[in-house]
Amino acid sequence: MIWVETLINGALLGGLYALLGIGLALVFGVMRVVNIAHGEFMVLSAFCAVLLANLCPSVPPLLMLIPVIALSFAVGWIYQAVIVNRVIKSPDPLAPLLLTFGVSVILRNVMVEVFGADVRSLQVGELSRASLEIAGLNIGIMPLLTLVLAALLFMALQLILRHTEFGRIVRATADRRDIVRLSGVKPDRVYNYVMGLSLALGAIGGVLLAVRSSFTPFSGAERLLIAFEVVVLGGLGSFWGALLGGIALGMAQLIGLKIDPNAGLLYAHLLFFIMLLIRPSGLVSSKG
Amino acid sequence: MPTRTILAASGLVLAAVIAGAPFVLNEGILRLATECLLLLTMAQMWNLLAGYAGLVSLGHQVFIAFGAYALFLTSGWLEVTPIWVLPVAPVVAAVVAAIIAVPLFRLREAYFSIAMWVFAEIIGAFTMKSQAVGGTSGLPLPTSKLIDFDWFEPTMFWLAGALTLGTIAALYKLMISSFGLGLMSVRDNDLAAMSVGVDVRHNRFVAFVLSAAGCGLAGALSFMGNLYIAPLAAFDVNWSVYMMFIVIIGGIGTLEGPILGVIIFFGLRELMTGPLGLSGGWYLVGLGVIAVIVMMVAPRGIWPALRDRLGIRLLDVQRTSPRPAVVLPSASQQIAG
Amino acid sequence: MALLDVTGLQIFYGDLQAVFDMNFTVGNGEAVALVGANGAGKSTFLKALVGLNEERSGTVHFDGIDISRMPAEEVSRLGLIMVPEGRLLFDSLTVEENLLMGTVNRRSGSWTLRRVFDLLPILQERRRMVPGQLSGGQQQMAAIGRALMSNPRLLLCDEISLGLAPVVVEQIYRSFADIRGEGTAVVLVEQDVKRALAACERVYCLLKGRVSLTGPAREMQPEQLTHAYFGN
Question: Which of A161, A183, A209, C118 has its CA 20 to 30 A from that of A136?
Answer without folding.
Answer: A209
